[in-house]
Amino acid sequence: MPAFLTFALIAPMASFGAPAVGERRESWSRPGRSAVLGLVGACLGLEREDDAAQAALAADYGLALLCVAAGKPFADFHTAEVPSASRKTRHATRAEELAVPKHQLNTILSRRDYRTGAWHLAALWARGASPRWSLSELAEAMQAPGFTTYLGRKSCPLGLPLAPRVDEEAPDAPAALRARFATGPEAGFAAWLALAEEPKFIAMDAEGAPAHAHRIETRRDQPRLRRAWQFDLRREAILGFEEGA
Asked: Among 31, 76, 106, 128, whose Cα sits 20 to 30 Å from the Cα of 198?
C-alpha cells in the first residue's frame, strides 16, 4: 500500500493559470498539476533550468486534489505602454521599449483573472519504487521552502501553512484526502471556509483512478519543459467527495 503526502493549498487570492492567449490571463477553478508541482519544486529550491530535476518531479509522483471551494472570480486590469510594432526594430528588454520617443508609445489593456477564498487539499504519492525524493523529503522541504511559495502569482501568498503530513494508512488518495479534511490542521476552519456551499469533489490523475469516476477531463498541465513553458495534455478523473468512503 503506497503512502500519501497531503498538504493544504489555501490562499486569500490565487490564480490557477489556464492556457493564455492575447491580453487575457484566465484562471482555472482549481490548481493544475503544473502549478502544484511548481510549488513543490519551489519548496525543494529547484531552478526552472534544472531540466533533470524538473523532469523527475513531473514523472515520479501522482496527484489528487480535494476541491472544497473554488473561490470567487476576481479580475484585475492592467495598462501598459508599448512601442508600435515594427519589422525593423526588436526590443530585447522592457527598458528598451520605454526608451523610444513618447509619441511612439501606445497604451494597451490586459486582464488577469484570480480566485478569492480558494480552498483545496492536495495528495502526492510515488509512482515508482525509487522516486528522486521520498515523501518525507518533500514534506521536510515544505516546512522550510527553498524559494518563496505562492498560489499562481507572487501577489498570491498562502493564507495557511502547507502543513505537510504523510499518511501511511489510507488505502488510496481519495481516502487520504477525506481523512485530511476531517482531521487535518485546517479542519477547524472548514465550516467557515466552506460557506460558499459548493459541492466538494476530488480530481486526480486518471491513471490509477477508481473506475467509477463521474467523468474524465483533459487538461494541458503536465510539465514537459519548465524553462520553455511547455506543457502536455493530461487526463484527469473527477469523483464525488463521498465515493468510496
From this structure: 76
Write down the pTM of the prediction. 0.86
Calculate the alpha carbon distances from 134 to 42, 44, 122, 138, 179 in Å: 16, 12, 16, 6, 21
**Ramachandran assignment for 7, one of left (phi > 0), alpha (psi -120 to 50 degrees), beta (any other):** beta
Q: pLDDT (tens digit, 9 = 90+) per residue, 51-107?
A: 999 999 999 999 999 999 888 898 888 787 777 777 777 777 878 777 888 877 888
Sorted by sequence, the CB contacts under 8 Å of residue 25 that are 6+ apart come out as 15, 17, 110, 111, 112, 113
